[in-house]
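Human:
If only I could read backbone structure tokens as easily as an amino acid sequence. I am handing you a single protein, as its sequence and its fold in token form. I hope you can help me see how the letters and the tokens relate. Thank you; the sequence and its tokens follow:
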Amino acid sequence: MTYTWEQRKFSDFTFPAGERNKDDLDLEPFAITNNQGFIAQSEAHDDFGYMKDVDRKMYIVVKPNSFAYNPARINVGSLGYYEGAENVIVSSLYEVFQTAEYVDDKFLKHWFKTKAFQDWIERLQEGSVRLYFYYDKLCECIMSMPSVEEQRKIGAYLDKIDNLITLHQRKLKSAKCR
């Protein structure tokens, strides 16, 4: 069966999902790394003590199944997808969004790794010394999107390939250590 792909603007299928932690909830702080995506700040930084003195009310609550990124570092891959079961918090610098029901997040996660997305960032980022790519700019991006069923198949297939690559990288590293 052949599915048609439609051009979709991000403003049509994403929506802002981050809210300030105004109730000062005691949620675990996370960061987003270029290679690992979402990671607990305790794992990302050697000295975790500084969080004790930070005003957590300024942080953004991230719900499960949300994307988040640093608008000043998205050009180097600082974008992640949070698959955890509990809410967490991230720096107020991050942009947080979720997607409509007809979007498979795994498919979209892989699309964010493409040259097409990098081209959008280069075209739409703004600033002089430091370039930024805020959520309003993301909403201007356009991508070709198949049906959600096809998205699921593509996302699952690309996940399998990623897992296979990771497995072979581990084997290679293990063989080099011997």
Residues 170 and 176 are 10 Å apart (CA to CA). The chain has a mean pLDDT of 91.
